[in-house]
Amino acid sequence: MSPRKAAALRATDDARTLRDHLVTTAQRLLAEGSAATLTVRGIARAAGVADGVLYNHFPDKDTLLATAVRAHVDEAQRALGPLPAPGEAAVAGNLGIYLRAGLDLHRAVLPVFASLLATPVVLTRFAELPAAHSDWRMLLSDYLTGEQRLGRIAAEADTTAAAAILVGICHDQVLGALLPGMSSPTVDPDAVVTTLLAGIGPLE
């Protein structure tokens, strides 16, 4: 272990590797401001290491930032905890849980993605990295499909469109708060679910 590496990790009394330390530092810096303003020197100083240390673990700054974004999204996904499975409890209540989880997830990750709009290469590399946890949107789609198979959602319902509506609500609520002059009226998740089920509930 190099002296600089030892010092950086001793400062936080952390057992992580230096690579993990760099990712965590970049993750924190992304949450604090725009990716466009981050430099190798700035990341290194925040991590307490020499500038060149970054290149011992990553080919360039963009790859480090993409890895940091991946770690941030994985943490946000993990924080959602277990979500309802098809057949459990009531569909309306379950969809309310999914929608609230989606809103929490989007509030956690969209500000970071918004800061990356000026650095599309980071977003491209992020998309190439494997996820540690199942994507919330995929879990939602699988849930709706499973409920449809059980007959708790109408057979003729378009569950892909239903998922897109709930995802769209998350985008509207969170992006509206991020963009100046674009704020959207706050919606009640239960009211959204009630409205949605009025169109996809089983026919009587």
From TrEMBL:
Residues 39-58 bind DNA. PROSITE patterns: HTH_TETR_2. Keywords: DNA-binding, Transcription, Transcription regulation. It comes from the Bacteria. The keyword DNA-binding applies. Residues 16-76 form the HTH tetR-type domain. Signal peptide: none annotated. Pfam families: TetR_N. The keyword DNA-binding applies. This is TetR/AcrR family transcriptional regulator. The lineage of its organism: Bacteria, Bacillati, Actinomycetota, Actinomycetes, Mycobacteriales.
